[in-house]
Design brief:
Layout: E1 3-9, E2 14-22, H1 23-28, H2 32-44, E3 53-58, E4 62-68, E5 73-74, H3 75-82, H4 87-106, E6 109-110, E7 119-121, E8 127-129, E9 136-137, H5 156-159, H6 167-182, H7 192-201, H8 212-221, H9 237-241, H10 251-255, H11 270-275, H12 293-296
């Protein structure tokens, strides 16, 4: 819903990412509620496994959201480079994402947009969840009916618009583990119709060399019946943490970032960042019609 720019806070000599979102586009795409909620959530959340927000502002035509700069880029980029991951690094990233989801769920939210593109790496190689636009508060027993997320990661109940809750995150987490280890999504298909049918049936064909504990946790997470999905009990994600796939993980050390990340990201150094030229652009919004006051009020307090 916007374009992200690397910016420097000159008085603090600190780099941040500023997401610039056009108000008219947000209104046309019915995304106002999502961006307002994302800003509010970033203000509330304080988790080492979720990207931090530093502030927001607006002008007549745009919203601006300042966030933590993750110098390592997307986990997706690492997966493209490596093709697929060995069990140990996949377990590391899965554990960090699980801690992020646990934080979100314990605060009464569902994330709803898990995918490698939304997992960012910092300069040391630790991962954090980003893009909280679809993150939504849900009371226990309550469901939401908005179809959102990436098709390959959608659970059957999301796809069928039956109403979904935190169980949809569990399904997506299973897809995530599979993709890291296999190098492709479990329901990847030649046509959308084939993908749709595979997801509704929960049909997963595992590679011959797929780790047995990983196969078990993916199978339990990607179960069509939500009530039987691993982690959906009252114990929540603690049940997932106790699975054999995570055997040997020191969760306290993981929470405190005392476990060495499996990969050190390549990144621009301070000298290279300083050599980047300031971006100069002419805003296309200058020719846009003035937004009505009643519509602009929807962005009040951003």
């Amino acid at each position: 819903s916007g374009v992200a720019y690397l910016c420097q806070l000159s008085q603090y000599n600190k780099y941040v990412v500023v997401k610039m979102m056009k108000k008219m586009k947000l209104l046309r795409m019915n995304q106002v509620e999502n961006v307002m909620r994302e800003r509010a959530i970033l203000q509330q959340f304080d988790c080492p496994f979720i990207v931090s927000g530093f502030g927001s502002f607006q002008d007549k035509h745009y919203l601006y959201l300042a966030m933590e700069f993750m110098a390592g880029g997307e986990l997706f980029r690492l997966l493209v480079e490596k093709k697929k991951l060995e069990v140990a690094p996949a377990r590391f990233y899965a554990a960090e994402v699980l801690l992020a989801l646990e934080y979100i769920h314990k605060r009464g939210y569902v994330y709803r947009d898990l995918k490698p593109e939304n997992i960012l790496l910092d300069a040391q190689g630790f991962s954090k969840l980003a893009d909280l636009g679809f993150c939504k508060p849900l009371k226990r027993g309550e469901k939401t009916y908005t179809t959102c997320g990436t098709t390959d990661y959608m659970s059957p109940e999301v796809m069928l618009c039956k109403g979904h809750d935190r169980g949809a995150d569990l399904w997506s987490f299973g897809v995530f583990i599979f993709e890291m280890l296999a190098g492709f999504a479990p329901f990847e298909s030649a046509t959308d119709n084939d993908r749709y049918n595979k997801i509704l049936r929960g049909t997963i064909v595992f590679p011959d060399d797929f780790n047995l504990h990983a196969k078990d946790i993916v199978s339990q997470l990607c179960t069509v019946d939500v009530s039987k999905r691993l982690g959906y009990t009252a114990a929540g994600l603690e049940e997932v943490k106790q699975h054999r796939f995570f055997a040997g993980v020191d969760w306290r050390a993981m929470e405190e970032h005392k476990i060495e990340p499996p990969f050190k990201p390549r990144q621009l150094g301070a000298a290279q960042l300083k050599q980047l030229h300031p971006l100069k652009f002419k805003s296309s919004a200058e020719n846009d019609p003035e937004i009505k006051e009643s519509l602009n009020n929807l962005f009040a307090n951003y």
